[in-house]
């Protein structure tokens, strides 16, 4: 994804998620790649699948807010941004790294 080849990144992330659907880090990366590739609706759906089982995943809320904002869903986006800020300021940040999720206190 970081190399800039979004289509390859999307394909690799989809394959990774077929092997292990619980990898929230891969889902967030896929959401980012989809959004950067102009597939904002798909990105929004992908990112929402992270925030439901992992409501403390700050990055997922931030990225979902960005996707919703691009879709013109300003109220929903605002809610996601608020959740992101709350997690960042009060509870620390949950960061997905590979196969595990790590909680980083502030």
List the helices and strands and how they pair.
Blueprint: H1 6-19, H2 24-36, H3 40-51, H4 58-70, H5 74-91, E1 93-97, E2 100-104
Antiparallel strand pairs: 1-2
Helix pairs in contact: 1-2, 2-3, 2-4, 3-4, 4-5
Strand-pairing-aware structural class: mainly alpha
Q: If strands are numbered along the chain, what order do they take across the biggest sheet?
A: 1-2
The percent range for strand residues is: 5-15%
Order of helices and strands: HHHHHEE
Low-confidence stretches: 97-106
- Tally of DSSP helical segments: 5
The number of E-state strands comes to 2
Distance between the first and last residues' Cα: 28 Å
Helix content: 55-70%
Outline:
globular
Description:
Helices cover 66% and strands 9% of the residues. The chain is built from 5 helices and 2 strands, in the order αααααββ. β1 and β2 form a beta hairpin. α2 packs antiparallel against α3, α2 packs parallel to α4 (58-70) and α4 (58-70) runs antiparallel to α5 (74-91). It starts with 5 loop residues before the first helix and ends with a strand.
Structure characteristics:
106 residues; mainly alpha; two-stranded antiparallel ribbon; 2 strands; 66% helix
């Amino acid at each position: 994804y970081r190399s800039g080849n979004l289509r390859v990144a999307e394909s690799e992330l989809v394959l990774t998620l077929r092997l292990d659907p619980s990898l929230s880090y891969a889902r967030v990366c896929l959401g980012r790649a989809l959004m950067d590739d102009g597939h904002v609706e798909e990105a929004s759906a992908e990112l929402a699948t992270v925030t439901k089982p992992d409501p403390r995943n700050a990055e997922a809320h931030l990225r979902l807010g960005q996707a919703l904002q691009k879709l013109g869903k300003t109220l929903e986006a605002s809610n996601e941004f608020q959740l992101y800020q709350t997690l960042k300021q009060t509870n620390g940040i949950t960061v997905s790294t590979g196969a595990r999720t790590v909680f980083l206190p502030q």
